Every structure is written in structure tokens, then in C-alpha cells.
Fold this sequence. Notes:
By secondary structure, this protein is of the alpha/beta class. It is built from four helices and ten strands, in the order βαβαβαββαβββββ. It has a five-stranded mixed beta sheet, with no helix packed on it. A five-stranded mixed beta sheet has the order 4-5-6-8-7, covered by helices on one side. A hairpin with a 2-residue loop joins strand 7 and strand 8 (127-131). It is globular and about 40 Å long.
Amino acid sequence: xxxxxxxxxxSDTHLTTVTQEFKSIVSSLFRDVxxxxxxGDIVTREVYDYLCAxxxxxxxxxxxxxxxxxxxxHKRVEVIEGRRIGITHxxxxxxxxxxxxxxxxxDVDIIVFGxxxxxxxxxxxxxxxxxxxxxxxxxSGPPSVGILEIGxxxxxxxxxxx
Length: 162
């Protein structure tokens, strides 16, 4: 039948170093996740290396350094619990970003993206679109991350970062 996988979702962390605050946020909000998806703008290799203590699936963002740009793809597709998840950062102005990320993929069930710094959860043409928001410098509201649960059903949740 179906298993259930719980995934922590990050984007736009914009950190140049691993801070105690970041460690605390990740260890508390993602304490029971099996995988972490990072939708770009990690910024430095140090932060990426820290996240590699988990099973991390990441893409590069427009603010990531050359070392990360060489290491991480612009986009990727992961299959988790039989669901195809497209992961990309996004680009350009926030208006129209959902259409832009939809055009990046074919044959996916979910698209995880970042860039706009705005928490989003919507569905277009049977494809779920999920942006966890920004861990730093949100467009509005509190900083946020996300939880994605994939099993028989797909569930999305935004969590405010305190």
C-alpha cells in the first residue's frame, strides 16, 4: 500500500554561516522529517554541508555562490512515495512565478519552489505548487518553512519561524 514520508521544505535561507538560530530552527521544526528539500538561495557551502546531515534534495538559487552553483542543479525531479516532485528556485518578479515554474516541468505531481519569499500552496491543472516562504526576509508576514507529507494523500503545511 502506501507508506508516508514527512519532508521539511526550505527556501531562501540567505545565510552566509550556520548560526545557532538556524540549527535550533532546523532541529526543532524538522525533528521528525526524513528528507529536507531546499528550493534555493542557500547562499554558502557551509550551510548546504550542515543540511547534508539529513537526506537533502536541493537546487541552486540566484543568490547561491559559485561553489553551490557548480554543485547543485537548476532544477530536479525526485520520486518520493511514487509522487514526482519538481524542485526549482524560480526567477524574475513574483507576479507570474507560478506559471514560470509550471513551464519548467512536465509529468510531475508537485512543484516546490522559492524565490518570491511568499508562502504559497495552490493547485493548477492537477499539479500542486508549494513555496515554503522565506526563512529570512519574508515578503510579508513572519519567516516560514514548510512540511510536506506524502502518503495516500498529500498534505502541505506552512510553519512560522520564531
